[in-house]
Structure formats: C-alpha cells, structure tokens
Design a protein that fits this description.
Elements (H helix, E strand, L loop, with lengths): L11 H31 L6 H19 L2 H10 L6 H17 L4 H12 L1 H11 L2 H22 L5 H7 L12 H24 L17 H15 L6 E5 L5 E4 L2 E6 L7 H19 L14 H16 L3 H14 L8 H8 L17 H17 L7 H13 L24 H17 L5 H6 L4 H10 L9 H9 L6 H14 L3
Parallel strand pairs: 1-3
Antiparallel strand pairs: 2-3
Length: about 500
C-alpha cells in the first residue's frame, strides 16, 4: 500500500532522493547479476551451476523488493504533479513505470519466474552439448508458462505477447516501440527480403567466398591478439573493458566496466572478428552513457533495440563495408601473412556473401539474418498463445526455415538450441531486427553530416563515435524510444533505409 500524497510527511526533495536511492539499489543488483552471468560463461567451474542459479534467483528477488518498496511508492505519490526539471521528470517516469508494473504481479509469481529462469541457462548449455532439444523442452515450457502468467497479471485484458514485449522491467525491457510498429517492419521485411534472397541465390555472380577458408587454419591465440588490436583500432577504452571467450558472444556492463566476449574458429578469423566488432558496438554505447547518471535511468540504455542498433551499425555499416577492408586488411595480414595475396574487394565479397545454407543466426549475412529473427518471433508468439507445444518447436522451426530460406536443420543444435536466449527471455529476438533497421536509419542520417566512407577508409572513428554519442548514447533514457529515434534521425522508425541499403549493396555484389 502507498500513502496518499496529502497525508505523507515526505517532502518532494526527500521523495526525489528516495527515488534515486531505490534506483541505485535496483541497478546495482542488476549489474551484479550481469557479472554472475559473465562468470558463468567465462570462468565458473561446471560444478558451480547449482549455487549460481540460487544466487541469481536471490538477486532477482532483491531487485523486485526494491522495485515494489512501500517508501518508493510513497515517494512517487508525493512527486505526482511536483515541479521537476526535465531530467528529474524522465527519471521519475521510468522508475514509476517499473513500480506500477512490478506491484501488479504477486510475489509468488515473481519468485517462480526467478526460480525458473535462474537455472535455465545451464539447462540450455547441457542440452546444446548433447544436441537434444528434449533435454531443454521441459525447462522451455516452464519459461513460457512463467512469463505468460506474469503477463496476465500485468495486463489481464491485453495480448500476453504484447505485454511481454512492451512492459518488461530492467535491462531486457523494450519500452515505447509498440507491437504494431514491429509487425509493420516484420511484414515489410518478409515481403521484400524473401524474393531478394531468392534473386541472390539464382545469381551467377562469382564472389570470393573462400577468401578466408582457403587460407586457413588460423591459430586461436593469434586471433585473440588480432581481436584486441581490432578493438584498439575501433577505439575501446581498456581501462573500462576486457575481452574473454564465451560459447555465445555477449557484452554486459556499466559505464565503468564492460565485459566483452567472442568465440573463435580455426577455419576463419571472421567468426571472432564479426563477433568482437558487434560487441564493441554494445560497449561503445555503454561507455557513452553519462557517468554522472550511473545508478539512475538516464545512465541506462534506451532498450535492447537501440542497444542493438549500435552493435549492428559497427558490425554491418563499418566492418562489412568496402572502405573498412581497404583500411583493415594490412592489420589482418600482419597477424596472418597467408592472406598477403587477398585483396580488399575479395575480403569485402567474402564477408558479405549470402550462403545457401545459413543455418546459424549469428553467422548469417545481413539478408537472411532477419528471416532467422522472424521465424523465432513467430514461434514465440505461437507458444505464448498456446497454438503450439514446446515439443513441436524443432519441427515448426524446420518448416519455417524451409519456407523462408529453403533449408532444413540437420540437428537441434543447428536449429532451436543454437541460441541461449529462450533460457530466460520471451520474446528474445525482436530487438535484433529493430536494431538492424535503426542502424541503417542512423547510417543514412549520419551520412548527411559526415563523409562516413572516407572516415572509415582512413581509420578515423572518433567523429563517428561523437555523432552516435551526441544523437543516442549520452541521452540514456532521457527520452522515450520513439522520441529518441525521431530526434536522432528526423523521422519515426522505418525499414525503408535498411531495404534501400540492402538492395543497393547486394544488387552490386550479385549483379542483380
């Protein structure tokens, strides 16, 4: 219960201090949970899984208690209608939003959700290693049921999937991009990309698709040094970051401490390089958040869709561009002299090839990538709606893969076990496509102010960083997502720029 503001003894000043104090506690706990997740994948011995699940559950429970604290509720009531600066109002808006959502869910429901998801990541790792979906299916069913129950408490009249998309709390929340916008973008991409991919597959263009694989193998230790050098070139601040290896690349952290991970393949250095450049984009965003707002919403990223726009910008619009390879190839040759005869154009063609057998999302090209996201999202919606059961996922997955890309997975690891996201998140993938679409929109806006290709060709990344920091990163959650995008690019979120970019780029590469 929260006290009525007319009866409260709390002054507006004290109320605002209370909001800041609770926000700090919540976000500190969230960041500690990030560190436990990083440790689980990078350093924790296999036998630590049981205790780690308990620890993560306790952290989630503590976050929930702070988000629903009676003093916080009273402080928010006192601040209703109070005179606040624009930044203060933004902070109160974001904290109030999470308070209203979290207080609508019984503690027992949150405890079950925390219990189910805290250990699910380890279940996924074991199932993936065994290549057996049936080992993970019971946990997946629990995850879907726990999140659906949560959604029904948050909004008993609404679509549970839409509630899960738009009303989540914390780092995984994606606020202020409605599901109607997502559907419009996905429908456009589905309609445009499937025939474009078919055109590419039918093309007789002869790309240098084996520029890297024909010159392997590539020593893993040398690749690690190359990844560190690449991060140096892009401008990472090593006093606030470190690089490690994980089964599935990720980047978690704060303005002061980001943990970057990638993975390696002896067949080609591109697995590690594309992973580390992608995660660098996340790191650049996190480092670009205002340090003076650490612990409040303005020091937090504006949702995973915007976060993904920063990583996809660097991965696709920088590291998959021809000017990048004109700049970067000497660095690559220094570490791997066997590439001395490979040209920048050949490497450009190689990193942008559209494979006929694109089974793995994180290794997919820019075109087929979005069909991976769309099929996963369609499966998530069907699971939440009860239209399919968890045991049906591998078959439904294979059918959709065949419909969209003309291929069928040969194993569960090649299919629904390839990603860890369903071990804790529903929905888990929409933000990747939202981020890619926004990255193209940001790239188009940036080119009105900067000669982006020339800057990349010269290895001058500071102006690019400055532009992104000014338009996106330094604002944190100061603005709603839709407002932030329009302020940064001059118009609402649209797939038009991505499609224009894709048609031009792949039309040139494949002589379409």
């Amino acid at each position: 219960m929260t006290a009525d503001s007319t009866e409260s003894q709390m002054s507006p000043e004290t109320a605002y201090d209370t909001v800041l104090e609770k926000s700090q506690r919540i976000l500190d706990l969230e960041k500690v949970d990030f560190l436990t997740r990083w440790d689980s994948d990078v350093m924790m011995p296999e036998g630590g899984a049981t205790a780690r699940a308990s620890q993560r559950s306790s952290l989630a429970a503590a976050q929930h208690r702070y988000r629903t604290d009676d003093d916080l509720g009273e402080a928010l009531e006192v601040l209703e209608g109070a005179e606040l600066t624009a930044d203060q109002a933004a902070i109160v808006r974001e904290v109030r939003r999470e308070y209203d959502i979290e207080t609508s869910v019984p503690e027992s429901v949150n405890e079950r959700l925390s219990s189910v998801t805290s250990g699910a990541h380890e279940d996924w790792k074991r199932a993936k290693e065994a290549d057996d979906w049936s080992m993970f299916a019971p946990k997946m069913a629990d995850v879907v049921d726990a999140w659906t129950t949560w959604a029904e408490h948050v909004d008993s009249e609404g679509d549970p999937f839409e509630t899960l998309w738009s009303k989540r709390s914390g780092y995984h929340g994606q606020r202020y991009i409605d599901l109607e916008t997502v559907d419009r973008i996905f429908d456009t991409l589905r309609e445009e990309l499937v025939p474009l991919i078919a055109e590419v597959h039918e093309s007789d263009a002869d790309l240098a698709t084996d520029a890297f694989t024909a010159n392997g193998p590539y020593d893993i230790g040398t690749q690690h040094e190359l990844c560190k050098e690449t991060l140096d070139l892009l401008g990472v601040d090593w006093s606030r970051a470190r690089l490690d290896t994980a089964p599935h690349p990720f980047s978690y952290g704060t303005q002061y401490d980001v943990r970057i991970t990638t993975r390696y393949s002896e067949e080609s250095p591109m697995t590690a390089l594309q992973g580390v450049v992608h995660e660098f984009g996340h790191t650049a965003y996190t480092h670009g958040l205002p340090q003076e707002h650490y612990g409040d919403p303005i020091g937090e990223p504006r949702g995973l869709g915007v976060h993904e726009s920063q990583s996809r910008f660097f991965e696709n619009h920088v590291a998959r561009s021809e000017p990048f390879w004109e700049f970067y190839l000497p660095t690559l040759r220094k570490q791997f002299p066997q590439l001395k005869d490979v040209t920048p154009r050949e490497t450009y063609e190689c990193v942008n090839q559209v494979l006929d057998d694109n089974y793995i999302r994180v290794e997919a090209d820019e075109l087929t990538y979005h069909m991976h996201i769309i099929l996963r999202t369609e499966i998530e919606r069907a699971l939440v709606a009860g239209d399919i059961g968890v045991d049906e996922v591998p078959e439904v997955w294979a059918d959709k893969m065949e419909d969209y890309l003309g291929i069928r997975p040969e194993s569960d690891s090649q299919g629904p076990l390839q990603d860890p996201h369903w071990a804790g998140q529903i929905p888990a993938f929409i933000t990747y496509t939202i981020g890619s679409v926004l990255a193209a929109q940001l790239d188009a806006a940036m080119r009105e102010d900067l000669d982006v290709d020339e800057l990349i060709r010269d290895g001058e990344f500071d102006p690019i960083h400055d532009w992104l920091e000014e338009r996106i990163q330094r604002h944190g959650q100061r603005y709603r997502t839709d407002e932030l995008i329009e302020r940064a690019t001059g118009e609402p979120l649209t797939a038009d720029y991505f499609l224009e970019y894709a048609r031009e780029k792949y039309g040139d590469l494949y002589d379409l």
